[in-house]
């Protein structure tokens, strides 16, 4: 299976098996995720995880980081594990309303496919080191003439240079999203489908990006952080997933700096 299928199966299994989502809510929530392409969407357009399936990929990484960090500091038992998973998996639920596919029906030529496959074989180690696998050759979402041209030019002319922003040939920002906002929007979407969420779940999702220097928000953020350690920790778990780091001694030191 592909990483897209793996993440989809993992998240849907969690929803099916958890007891923090009522049975009557599960079908509605799953339909919401599927209808809005949660498992295909990127996590961004220009920055981290900006590829098809990047949103779910980033979410699973954040969830795993969050559990490990909570264990590291001995505070995991202060929270119900499935609520912790819910925070990690759906902290960026807001993005389900942020991106849309670019309509590009022009398929790559047979010559392009053959040439690109050869380039992938030649530069396999370099590509894997950059976190790029041959999914681009398999999935219809990736298979556009423009994307293949960009990849061929990069691998043929300057394979040691930065890869092209290939995600932009498929995804773009929605011109008219339903709502604006980030953490608060994710919490709002989640509460629409999952009732009676504990306060720490809502606050951890709401503040996972910090206050972003908005006037009046710093005081509320600090209040939430003092009340629940998980509000601090989810921000670090998200950051680590964003930059693709495993948990290291340096991260532990960063945790100490925020007084957990």
In short:
By secondary structure, this protein is mainly α. The protein has helices at 3-17, 23-35, 54-72, 81-90, 110-122, 124-129, 145-157, 183-193, 199-206, 217-227, 229-243, 249-257; strands at 99-101, 171-173.
Which structural traits does this protein have?
mainly alpha; two-stranded antiparallel ribbon; 2 domains; 260 residues
Summarize the structure in words:
The protein is an all-alpha fold and 260 residues long. The protein has helices at residues 3-17, 23-35, 54-72, 81-90, 110-122, 124-129, 145-157, 183-193, 199-206, 217-227, 229-243, 249-257, and strands at 99-101, 171-173. It folds into two domains: 3-99 and 175-257, no CATH class; 110-169, no CATH class. α3 (54-72) packs across α11, α4 (81-90) packs parallel to α9 and α9 crosses α11 (229-243). The protein has a two-stranded antiparallel ribbon.
**Continuous helix count:** 12
The tally of beta strands, per DSSP, is: 2
Strand order, largest beta sheet: 1-2
Uncertain residue segments: none
Morphology: elongated
The span between the termini is 39 Å
User: Average pLDDT across residues?
Assistant: 83
Radius of gyration: 20 Å
Estimated share of beta-strand residues: under 5%
The total number of structural domains is 2
The H-and-E topology, N to C, reads as: HHHHEHHHEHHHHH
Question: Which structural class fits the helix and strand makeup?
Answer: mainly alpha
User: Main β-sheet, in a few words?
Assistant: 2 strands, antiparallel
Assembly classification: single chain
Classify the helix fraction into a percent range. 55-70%
């Amino acid at each position: 299976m592909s990483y897209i299928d793996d993440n989809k199966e993992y998240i849907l299994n969690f929803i099916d098996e958890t007891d923090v989502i009522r049975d009557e809510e599960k079908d509605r929530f799953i339909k919401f995720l599927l209808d809005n392409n949660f498992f295909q969407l990127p996590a961004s357009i220009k920055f981290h995880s900006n590829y098809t399936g990047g949103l779910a990929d980033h979410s699973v990484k954040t969830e795993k980081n969050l559990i490990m960090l909570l264990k590291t500091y001995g505070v995991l038992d202060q929270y119900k594990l499935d609520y912790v998973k819910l925070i990690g998996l759906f902290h960026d639920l807001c993005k389900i309303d942020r991106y849309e596919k670019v309509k590009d029906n022009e398929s790559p030529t047979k010559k392009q496919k053959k040439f690109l496959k050869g380039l992938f074989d030649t530069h396999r180690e370099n590509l894997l080191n950059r976190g790029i696998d041959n999914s681009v050759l398999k999935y219809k979402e990736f298979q556009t003439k423009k994307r293949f041209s960009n990849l061929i030019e990069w691998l043929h002319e300057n394979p040691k240079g930065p890869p092209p922003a290939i995600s932009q040939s498929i995804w773009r920002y929605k011109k008219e999203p339903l709502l604006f906002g980030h953490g608060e929007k994710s919490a709002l979407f989640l509460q629409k489908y999952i009732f009676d969420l504990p306060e720490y779940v809502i606050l951890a999702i709401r503040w996972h990006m910090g206050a972003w220097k908005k006037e009046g928000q710093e005081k509320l953020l600090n209040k939430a952080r003092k009340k629940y350690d998980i509000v601090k920790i989810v921000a670090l778990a998200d950051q680590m997933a964003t930059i693709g780091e495993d948990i290291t001694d340096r991260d532990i030191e960063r945790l100490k700096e925020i007084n957990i």
